[in-house]
Amino acid sequence: MSILTLAGSPSQRSRSSALLRHAAHLLRARGLAIAELGLRDLPAEDLIEGHYAGPAANALRARVAAVDAVLISTPVYKASFSGGLKAVLDLLDEKALAGKVVLPIATGGSPAHLLALEYGLKPVLSALGARHILAGVYATDKQVRVDDDGASHIDDDVRTRLEDSVERLAEQLRPRGVVVNEAFDLGRLALAGGFSV
After folding, report:
1. Measured by CB atoms within 10 angstroms of the end CB, which terminus of the chain is less buried, N or C?
2. What pLDDT digit, counting tens, does each position of 89-111 carry?
3. Where is the NADPH-dependent FMN reductase-like domain (predicted)?
């Protein structure tokens, strides 16, 4: 199973990107493959002019198509997700997120901007075909701090919510046929007449 993280902030020391990096770290610890992409990885001219047919947009679409899940982070500006992220999402195909698990992550100046996830970002993700959008993780600027050296400090409440969301995402990515408790499954087979114990 593979996952793409998409950072929607233009800032090198973004709080939303700090949450995204922490989520990616937790997923890597579970043995999941993570690819990272940010606004700075795409040519600014392509984003501004919407070069849908350009090589960068083609590569973006190929990367999204190749993964099972997408984690998207964004700062909230003026009660909406970042314009840079919107420019990236505009380069995707109409159903680019169909069949993928999506976890939105956002940070903003106050709790009032929490609804930017529900009423701003999630409808765009749905328009891209996403049908399995996990409950987003939102944090205020006071709950996530990034030092000048890039080290991040995440409040316990936000860290717990992020870890819970990562757990839900990992659960969604587990193959459906995985045996969780072998003794239980062997006993169930015996009861069903599959074999004798």
Report:
1. C
2. 999 999 999 999 999 999 999 99
3. 1-143
Q: Report the DSSP pairing between strands 69-77 and 80-81.
A: antiparallel
**What is the rounded distance in angstroms from the CA atom of residue 171 to the CA atom of residue 122?**
21
Rg over CA atoms, the chain = 19
Residue type, 56: A
State the Cα–Cα distance between residues 192 and 189, nearest whole angstrom: 5
What is the C-alpha to C-alpha distance for residues 95 and 126, in angstroms, rounded to an integer?
9
Question: Phi, psi at residue 82, to the nearest 5°?
Answer: -65, 145
User: Which segments within 46-164 are labelled E, that is strand?
Assistant: 69-77, 80-81, 101-108, 132-133, 137-140, 144-146, 152-154
Rounded to two decimals, the pTM is: 0.85
What the block records as the tokens of 193 is: 């007449």
Q: Are strands 152-154 and 144-146 parallel, antiparallel or unpaired?
A: antiparallel
Domain regions of the chain by residue span: 2-192
